[in-house]
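Sequence in, structure out. Go.
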Amino acid sequence: MTLIYPLLALLGAFLTFYLAKHNRFDGIRASAALSIIAYLIFAQSSFNAELYSIVFFGGTFIGMSAPHRFGVYTLASSAIIFSLFFAYLVPILDGFGGALGISAFLSVCICHVFILLGAPRSKKTKI
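Output:
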């Protein structure tokens, strides 16, 4: 795993999180639009378009988390945990789909459990 996985996951999570707060976008539309744009950018470059766009798409899963539950720090923590899980689950599971869903679910679930156990929460942004 390189540093590109966490960076792409963070980028996808934060862009989706903030774009979903606008009037014409909700979490699903923000995730879909950003994932398509990211794939088109990666396809035009010499990067591994399939893998990097999937990592970005997984980050958008994290960004679709409810803003009243997650703040900026929790969102960043979830995105980094997602990238770690994804890097280690891709070789184990057959295909990207299973690793993508399980990684996103586990990362959000872990951060939510820590919040329930009393971990400090970041303040919600009002953008």
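Check: Helices lie at 4-19, 27-44, 49-63, 72-89, 96-116. DSSP finds five helices and no strands in the chain.
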